[in-house]
Structure formats: structure tokens, C-alpha cells
Amino acid sequence: MKAALVGADGALLHQARRATGRERGPDAVVADILDFAAELRAHGIEHYGAPARAAGVAVPGIVDEAEGVAVYAANLGWRDVPLRALLTERLGGVPVALGHDVRTGGLAEGRIGAGRGTDRFLFVPLGTGIAGAIGIDGRVEAGAHGFAGEIGHIVVRPRGTPCPCGQRGCLERFASASAVSEAWAAACGDPGADAADCAKAVESGDARARAVWQEAVDALADGLVTALTLLDPRTLIIGGGLAEAGETLFSPLREAVRRRVTFQKLPSLVPAALGDTAGCLGAGLLAWDLLETADPSDPSAPSEVPT
């Protein structure tokens, strides 16, 4: 869990983090979030002379942002957790915004990160899985049911590797950091090898690593071209663990995307700028949006952001 106090301009005023503690069960995770938020509130009072005026929280899984409910989060064991109501009560009645973790991170990248000043962008973090955030004029599109941006479940290899979603050949089964780790571990015979090791082997000229890497790049390019055909973004922002490989990823990926486009306009393809602070910053922006909606004046207190 990451938490922060965030200024109106997106400045990080204070950061903290702690283990999720999910091994103690879903209720314990909720209790820890509430405690963490209360501690952050106290820090704001002590160091800024007043509590934060709003809070934002970003969580994984299926999120009902309008109702403030974490509908389902497999890795936390959550079902229908009324997180917004619980936080509002714990924080003394301040307004609370609830967001999906990837869309919230995308909001930050779009407004104050790699997509700053861009009217249309697609943010794609490559981690354990692959998701996406569709940015439109300073906001992120959630879709009619909160599922917009699930680019990881575009089928890029029909009848390919089974995916837990029920389909076969989904993008994240080939181009996520976990997929590259799995493929490289099998190719090199080291069960402990991961995607970062694969990238290093690519840089050293290992032919097996280059084959694994190229398969991931080609799958990712296929998925991205499908997305840009539908969405026509001005900028593609790639983040997550796999993006830490830098130009080892971005050079072949830009070329692979360029080869695939025909009538489509080729967007800028850039690395994410905010790293693992994107979720905290995005949650802070959600909180500030609540205040701007309720009060057009510029509040002076920082916003409180448990994520």
C-alpha cells in the first residue's frame, strides 16, 4: 500500500508505504487501509495545521466508482466492499473518491506525467497483467460498466495460450512482465529467471532471449495497433515493470508498431514518467476533482490519498 499527501498541483508533500498484509484476510486489509488513512490525516494536521479536505483511493479489480464500492479484487479477497463509505466515516466526513488502480495511474500520467498536454492518450502498464487507461481531455474513460481499457484481454494469438479470463491467446499471456518471465525461465532453464534477466540477456546478445523478447514485442505491437485503430490516441504511454528495460523495449516496439500501421496515424510512443507513484498522484487528483466540483475556489490544504 502506498499513501501520500498531494498538493493541488500534483506535488507529493508526504509519502509512506506498508505491506498490504493480505495473508491476514480481506477484512484485515480494509482495517489497515482505514488505519493508514487516519495516520495520514494526523500527519497532515501535525505538519500542515489542518486535516486534508478530501481523500482518494485507488484499488485493483472491478470498481464501481459511482457507488464507491470495490466490487471484486481477487488478489485482496474483496467482494462488494463499501470502501468510500468506510473511509468517509473514518476520516470525519470528508469527501472520498474511489478509482480503479490503472485508470487512476493513467489519470496522473495524462495530467502531470508523460501525457501532460495531450488531449488523447492510452496508458498501458505492463506488469503481472496488462490493462489500459483511455485518456480524453483530462479525464479517463471508465466505460458503461467500468471495464474500459482492458487491452490485456484483446486476443492477439487465436487458439493460443489459455487465459484465466476464459479466452485463449490474450495479449497479457504473451507480453506482460509475468509472461516474459515465464517464457524466459523456460528458455534458459532457470526457474528463478524473470523479465529483467531476459532484458539483460537481450542486451548481451543472447539469441534465446532475443527470440523470447521479440515474441513479446510482436504480440504487444499487435495489441497496441488494435487499440490505436479503435481509439486514435495522440500518445501511447507504456509503463510497468517491462518498461523499465528502456530502449531495449521501446526501440523494437516503436518499429513493430510502425510496420503494422497502414491508414492509422502513428502516435508518439513514450515511457511512463511517474513510476510507482502514479497511483498515489492519480488518487490525489481524484480527490482534488471532488473539491473543485464542490467548491471552485482553490483550497490550501493538501489532499489525503491512501492507495
Which descriptors apply to this entry?
307 residues; alpha/beta; 5-stranded mixed β-sheet; 3-stranded antiparallel β-sheet; 9 helices; 13 strands
Give a written overview of the molecule.
By secondary structure, the chain is an alpha/beta fold. It contains nine helices and 13 strands. It has helices at residues 26-48, 83-90, 101-112, 172-175, 177-188, 195-203, 207-231, 247-260, 278-294, and strands spanning 2-6, 12-17, 55-59, 62-64, 69-73, 78-81, 96-100, 120-125, 133-136, 139-141, 235-239, 268-271, 303-306. The strands form four sheets. A five-stranded mixed β-sheet has the order 10-9-8-11-12, sandwiched between helices. A three-stranded antiparallel β-sheet has the order 2-1-13, sandwiched between helices. A three-stranded antiparallel β-sheet has the order 4-5-6, with helices on one face. A hairpin with a 7-residue loop joins strand 8 and strand 9. Helix 5 packs antiparallel against helix 7. It starts with a strand and ends with a strand. Residues 296-302 have low confidence and may be disordered.
Question: Which helices and strands appear, and what pairs or packs with what?
Answer:
Elements: E1 2-6, E2 12-17, H1 26-48, E3 55-59, E4 62-64, E5 69-73, E6 78-81, H2 83-90, E7 96-100, H3 101-112, E8 120-125, E9 133-136, E10 139-141, H4 172-175, H5 177-188, H6 195-203, H7 207-231, E11 235-239, H8 247-260, E12 268-271, H9 278-294, E13 303-306
Parallel strand pairs: 3-7, 8-11, 11-12
Antiparallel strand pairs: 1-2, 1-13, 4-5, 5-6, 8-9, 9-10
Helix pairs in contact: 1-2, 3-9, 5-6, 5-7, 6-7, 7-8
